[in-house]
Amino acid sequence: MKFTDLGLDERLLEGIDAMGYETATPVQQQVIVPILEGKDIIASAQTGTGKTAAFLLPLIHQLLTHPHETHDINAMIIVPTRELAIQIAETMEGLSYFTSVSSIAVYGGGDGTSFATEKKALTQGVDVVICTPGRMIAHLNMGYVKLKGLRYLVLDEADRMLDMGFNDDIMKIISFLPRDRQNLLFSATMPPKMREMARKILHEPVEINIAVSKPPEKIIQKAFIVYDAQKVAIIKDILSTKSFQRAIVFCSKKQNVKQLSQELKRAKLSIEQIHSDLEQSQREQVLQDYRNKKIKILVATDILSRGIDIEDIDLVINFDVPNDGEDYIHRIGRTARAESTGTAFTLVSEKEQNKLAQIEVLLGQPVPKGNVPEEFGPTPEYNPRKPRSGSGGGGGKKRFSRQRKQQ
Ligand code: AMP
């Protein structure tokens, strides 16, 4: 799902773009709309799923589009640790960069200057406060915190706050807040005491569970960060030097399947292609030849990424990075079926780095990066957020020997 489909404010879309987010993660897809509708939320979502933006985006949108008291605190985000407060404040700064929405992180451990800066903001009003419980209470006890206009409360990593013994502090902070407000609670786990706390704080909440998709652990995954022009040579090298029983090479577009197939045939590799331009009977013949081991390598579009069940596929190569994490999981899931193990390589060009980053968000962990042998020349850094120009790299060469049709 694109962020434009969520009806978010234009200024916010600019911030999302600058952060390098392209599509909404599953938690964002499920959480943003009910928050925009004003509902209370209880969401079980882990760090790494994009949950911070899931609550910040609708919050900033509401502040941009609804009249609110500019000399008060409008939203309070309570978090267990100062590290998390700083991290959320940074994401907030990035997402709200093109807006006038203000924010401050309020956490313990700083010097006297930071306390004074916090006091000033809390006295004069700031749109969003991101705070740790103890520090917030220290300010609240002094009586100057402007909370009359507060309309949003977020509890992030609520289970961790309970584990750290912040239950009473949180309830005390809440006793200072106006009753008429929207409450959002995020927690990785939902133990009974979490539910009990939720019952006290939330009003008819929408419950959201994000089941994190995970590929089987026995698949050895590697991503190679390369220039587009290096991909064909690297694939040829892998397919001619690595030992495997059967391999599938996935491309996102049938045009790429056709061109890559030609290149691999020229290299005398045992390959066939499969995509939607083939007649049904041709497809079946190709699959049969592959099953019977007449051919060792299939070059395919995503029509093969779901559903086909062929044993002994022990190597999957993603020539193009799939468009989303679910497709990635389906593609690499073609290998290591049942008891066997498998390897999944993904070639990542410069313009695809953001896509890989997004997949890593869904997986909740990075895909280990592989070393490209020196003979292929220098490779780019993995630096997904940096805006980069064009897709070429590698001295502007096209990845295929003939000019590639623009698609
Ligand atoms: P979080 O779960 O909020 O800690 O987010 C984990 C990481 O995912 C952070 O580095 C975010 O900047 C990043 N992230 C959040 N949403 C997206 C998205 N829609 N696309 C790509 N990256 C994202």
From TrEMBL:
Residues 257-284 form a coiled coil. Residues 233-379 form the Helicase C-terminal domain. This is Superfamily II DNA and RNA helicase. It comes from Sediminibacterium ginsengisoli. A motif (Q motif) lies at residues 1-29. SMART domains: DEXDc, HELICc. Keywords: ATP-binding, Coiled coil, Helicase, Hydrolase, Nucleotide-binding. Belongs to the DEAD box helicase family. Residues 1-29 form the DEAD-box RNA helicase Q domain. InterPro entries: DEAD/DEAH_box_helicase_dom, DEAD/DEAH_RhlB, DEAD_box_RNA_helicase, Helicase_ATP-bd, Helicase_C-like, P-loop_NTPase, RNA-helicase_DEAD-box_CS, RNA_helicase_DEAD_Q_motif.
